[in-house]
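To: structure desk
From: M.T.
Subject: fold request, one chain
Message: Could you run this one when you get a chance? Sequence is below, nothing fancy, just the single chain.
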Amino acid sequence: MQVFKVQGLKPLHGKIKVQGAKNAVLPMMAVSLLTEGRTEIRNVPRISDVFLMAEILRDLGCQVMFQDDVLEIDASGLSGTVISEKTVGKMRSSSLLLGPLLSRAGEVTTWYPGGCVIGKRPIDFHLDVLRAMGAEILDDGGMLIAKAKKLCGTTFRFPYPSVGATENALMAAALASGTTKLLNCAREPEIVELCSFLRSMGAKISGERTGTITVDGVEKLFPTDHVTAGDRICAGTYLAAAAAAGGEIEITGVDPVVLVEPLKALRKMGAGIRISGATGPKARIGMVMERRPAGVEIDTGPYPGFPTDLQSVFLAVEAAGSGESRFKETVYEARFEAAMRLAAFGADVSLHKDTAIIRGRYPLVPGIAETPDLRGGAALLVAALAADGLSVISDSGHLKRGYEDIGRDLRKLGADIEEDEL
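Reply: Done. Structure tokens follow.
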């Protein structure tokens, strides 16, 4: 158990380069199963989900080396097709191995995945698209047994633009026979990056920015090397922290283009945003907050909408704001757990089905709370930064799933945070 002791009302100042994107690295690790030879991925965050995925790959017979921020994967010795139930239960992204293993080995045995409890998040769409490509999948009391002699191209429309299901379909289609056309796909930056990664391996993919992706199956893929994009959710978290605490910070290592909606929301709150330097990931995102955040209305949604992963932390900002805000959650029905825990800091939050109403008050009161999930844990830290006194937040490992060292990073920006291990 990790315990954060946060002394609030300390404005943030400084510069920080964000880590590589968790949600981009995990599918690239999975897709490394489709080729023999050494694939190198750089700018990889040292987070628990990456270590867990590496453990699964090793159990399947892959060689995995992870030093500093460089990950090397060689799947030449792939020998297993059974994914341990214990490991699967810890990480939802383990479901991303379904498509690659079916394509490479023709079979896979696994269980329904774990991860943060933020809603039902079924993997029905993953299974449906794989069945459409010819896979036979049996659900034996929570154990999934999937087989396919050869996956075949198909046309499939997703009922909802699921990121994970789109990724699984892309990985399965890369070596399938014929052409696969995927409709109503997710368009998140991580989807675009996965397609770029697959193309560098020899895959034929087009349309990833449009919502309709075409994949022409090839006979073989080849090892590649890749530099992971910066983590947009991590960047949004630190910008939110500065919005709650006040001050002036600069973020580097992430393309501002993937932060359009969060930056728009911050401007509406009253933050000054400045984009300078080069374009793309070399740009510098400067933000100054000299007032209490004004009330905003935010609806989460698939990209290019406001990311659900930032709903909790932005809600925490508005808990210490100067007006009334409304957050409508359209992606995960149980993502308001963090909103209720903000009551420990004196937050005025009321829930109405899929909508949270927040009436800002400042300063918040110091609180004692336990993190409910990854992004909810970050939200509690953001609230503590706007509290008048010492807050104590305990975390059973949620934060390490997505942030290399959130306490270290916030200290770099001037936050008064101490950490203990229990």
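Reply (cont.): The domain at 22-227 is CATH 3.65.10.10 (UDP-n-acetylglucosamine1-carboxyvinyl-transferase; Chain). Let me know if you need anything else for the meeting.
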